[in-house]
Amino acid sequence: MTQDLYKILGVGRKASDVEIKKAYRKLARKYHPDLNPEDKNAEKRFKEIQEAHAVLSNSKKKKQ
């Protein structure tokens, strides 16, 4: 099952690059493992957020 990268970042499919970056930064701060050492799911969630941002911020990867 593939995850919806837009849903992971909480943005719509027509989100601009600026909106994607803003959502990424907000979520990255919220789920960063260093800021949530007690939360076992924070690292997993942070990695999902990073992967979603890596794809959606790259126009070539985004089209695939």
UniProtKB/TrEMBL annotation:
Keywords: Chaperone. InterPro entries: Apopto_cytoskel_mod (IPR051938), DnaJ_domain (IPR001623), J_dom_sf (IPR036869). SMART domains: DnaJ. The keyword Chaperone applies. SUPFAM superfamilies: Chaperone J-domain. Residues 4-64 form the J domain. It holds the Pfam family DnaJ. The keyword Chaperone applies. This is J domain-containing protein.
